[in-house]
Amino acid sequence: MKEVIEKYVTSPYSAKEDVKSLTGLPKLFIYSKGDSTVPFEQGQLIYNNAPEPKQFLEFSGEHIQGMVVEKDRLVKAIEQL
Asked: How many CB atoms lie within 10 A of CB 60?
């Protein structure tokens, strides 16, 4: 069973590693402690591994609900990139 999981479930991509190569590009990381899909700590790790320029925006809500609960704040952050 382990072989099946490794072959079909494990992604060859690692955001925490891949983000290190995004030099010179502005990055906006948007995460919520209330997200039940992507752990907040994972977002922090990816942000910490990213080179500048970067910005971390925390909101309150479920996965991908930032534009619903904090639209104005997120749009402003995007415009400032």
From this structure: 12
| pLDDT tens digits for range 43-77 | 999 999 999 999 999 999 999 898 898 999 999 99
Distance CA 67, CA 81 (A): 17
pTM of the model: 0.79
CA distance 27 to 53: 6
Q: In DSSP terms, which residues pair with 54 in a beta bridge?
A: 27
Report the alpha-carbon distance of residue 35 to residue 8 in Å, rounded: 25
pLDDT tens per residue across span 17-52: 889 999 999 999 999 999 999 999 999 999 999 999
Structural contact between residues 59 and 73, judged by C-beta atoms closer than 8 angstroms: yes
What is the chain's length? 81
Q: Which H or E element spans position 2?
A: helix 2-8
